[in-house]
Specification:
The protein has 161 residues and is α+β, with helices and mostly antiparallel strands. Helix content is 29%, strand content 26%. It has a single domain, classed as 60s Ribosomal Protein L30, Chain: A (2-Layer Sandwich), CATH 3.30.1330.40. The chain is built from 3 helices and 7 strands; from the N terminus they run H-E-E-E-E-H-E-H-E-E.
Amino acid sequence: MNLPLPQTVRGETATERLQALGLELPHLDGNAYFVHHRAAGESIYISGQLPFKEGVLLGQGIVGRDVELERAKELARHAALNCLAAAVQAVGDLDRVRIVQMLVFVASPPDFGLQSQVANAASELLIEVLGENGRHARTAIGVAGLPLNTPVEIQMVCTAV
């Protein structure tokens, strides 16, 4: 039996835990072609987010070839942070966000096989910040390429609590 990751970041609220990690939610620029989130019933669908910070893509390349595993994990954490920003846009408050499902796309060669380790870094961030509301169903997928040659893209489904 696998035990869930313990909540290790101190703070009473998700916002306090985010601050304890030295992080803040980024501003997401609008896009003429898609919205960052769309609600359908109780579910909120978060568009695929790339590891952008202040308008700059933080990395490019193929994980396991051009991008080291540890760097890919950092990029996954940042993409997850961007997803959280979109979720907050949708529900209004970080403490109301519950992650239902996360899909992690990792640009990687066919024999890479460590996509789940990249995804684990994003999962860990969600649990660190949201606690039990950050636990989720998940899929990690290796793909031949992603938009703008980014190594990682993350899509989520969440709900408001």
